TrEMBL record:
Residues 24-113 form the Ig-like domain. It comes from Otus sunia (Oriental scops-owl). It comes from the Eukaryota. SUPFAM superfamilies: Immunoglobulin. Pfam families: C1-set (PF07654). This is Ig-like domain-containing protein. InterPro entries: Ig-like_dom (IPR007110), Ig-like_dom_sf (IPR036179), Ig-like_fold (IPR013783), Ig/MHC_CS (IPR003006), Ig_C1-set (IPR003597).
Length: 113
């Protein structure tokens, strides 16, 4: 069997963002509606400073949260960032919802309310 050492030596190194494992910072912010109706508005889940790029961001709570949630594109060359918005309906409290983030640098899903 041949020596494969030369083959591995000629492979280009991976970019730092491909090998770095950095857990995300996650914050959830309530953005009230202009009318100020109780429970109406948006919840913003801001997920920043993570690597690698692979990530899952979801909302947990009553009702049909996934149907009312929007996830933006993952941005950056590493570390990365992404935003998710959940539209609240009138009479719904923000405290009933949590942003759940799954990432390779986390030992378990991170739940932030």
């Amino acid at each position: 069997m041949g020596n494969y050492g030369d083959v591995w030596a000629t492979c280009p190194p991976l970019p730092p963002s491909a090998t770095t494992r950095k857990p995300p910072n996650v914050t959830v912010t309530l953005i009230p509606s202009n009318g100020g109706a109780e429970g109406a508005g948006l919840l913003l889940c801001d997920v920043t400073a993570f690597a690698p790029r692979d990530i899952v961001v979801q909302w947990e709570g009553p009702g049909h949260a996934p149907a009312r949630a929007r996830l933006g594109p993952v941005t950056g060359d590493g570390p990365f960032a992404v935003l998710s918005l959940l539209r609240l309906v009138e009479g719904e409290g923000a405290a009933a919802y949590a942003c759940v983030v799954q990432h390779p640098a986390l030992p378990r899903p991170l739940r932030v309310a």
